[in-house]
Write a structure and sequence with these properties.
Triosephosphate_isomerase_AS, EC 5.3.1.1, alpha/beta, 255 residues, single chain, isomerase, binds glyceraldehyde-3-phosphate, TIM Barrel, gluconeogenesis
């Protein structure tokens, strides 16, 4: 039985005041009895404060990105060691905004994925197709190539999958991110199942265990149907994670 994970990606939103209000709002409604894991990924600058505030609660905190480098003269970058040092436990890698706006290749994303694991962080590998790619029928070709980059980083696919199984996959169709257009539960389930089948060709056991989140305009109004799908193990939520009540409503739906 896979555990559900509800993750909020705050992207480049907020101020110290709004972040504190958001964390307090989430914490005050987080019930220790919930079965699902709950994660928030604030901007780097608010990580320390968020982690301090989350201490003693069920709320996990992660980064939105990390450097593939160990340390050194890399202005503006943040290392895996630094995230771990603060107490972050997760990190997003390969979010579509990083891929499309900041030119992160699948190879670079794989380097970041491996660095995150090396530093004891749980990487959330984001994959997904653009509208054009969906319309020309290459959704799975794109998603598989993004996954393959991580698998191929390691010695062989079996070892690659072992490492993929230590992280989380987030399927985020680019056309559904921040657009208000959500993939239908059937569309999302189809890709989630295809990802799991693809991984099962290498190792059924790991494929059965890996958490696959859905991301793209998920909100409390559509979360129930999406989360009811057999291969959808949670959500990576952008806009709807910026309001404590809305985010908590999704967490409650997830259990
Ligand atoms: O990381 C989160 C995703 O990009 C989804 O964002 P969204 O919920 O605002 O569409």
């Amino acid at each position: 039985m896979r555990k559900t994970l509800i993750a909020g990606n705050w992207k480049m939103h907020g101020s110290l005041e709004s972040v504190e209000a958001l964390v307090n709002g989430i914490k005050s409604q987080l019930d220790d009895n919930w079965q699902s894991d709950v994660l928030v990924c604030p901007p780097y600058i608010y990580l320390d404060r968020t982690i301090q505030m989350a201490q003693g609660s069920k709320l996990a905190v992660g980064g939105q990105n990390l450097s593939e480098q160990e340390q050194g003269a890399f202005t503006g970058e943040v290392s895996g060691d630094m995230l771990s040092d603060l107490g972050a436990t997760y990190v997003l890698v390969g979010h579509s905004e990083r891929r499309s706006l900041y030119g992160e290749s699948s190879q670079l994303v794989a380097d970041k994925y491996a660095k995150a694991l090396e530093k004891g962080l749980k990487p959330v590998l984001c994959v997904g197709e653009t509208l054009e790619e969906r319309e020309n029928g290459s959704t799975m070709k794109v998603v598989k190539s993004q996954i393959d980059a991580v698998l191929d980083f390691y010695q062989d696919k079996e070892q690659g999958l072992e490492h993929l199984g230590q992280g989380v996959i987030a399927y985020e169709p680019v056309w559904a991110i921040g657009t208000g257009v959500t993939a239908t539960p059937e569309q999302a389930q189809e890709v989630h199942a295809a990802i799991r089948d693809y991984l099962a060709e290498i190792n059924q056991d790991v494929a059965d265990k890996v958490q696959i989140l859905y991301g793209g305009s998920m909100k409390s109004a559509n979360a129930e149907q999406l989360l009811a799908q057999k291969d959808i193990d949670g959500g990576l939520i952008g806009g709807a994670s910026l309001k404590a009540d809305e985010f908590i409503a999704i967490c409650k739906i997830a259990g």
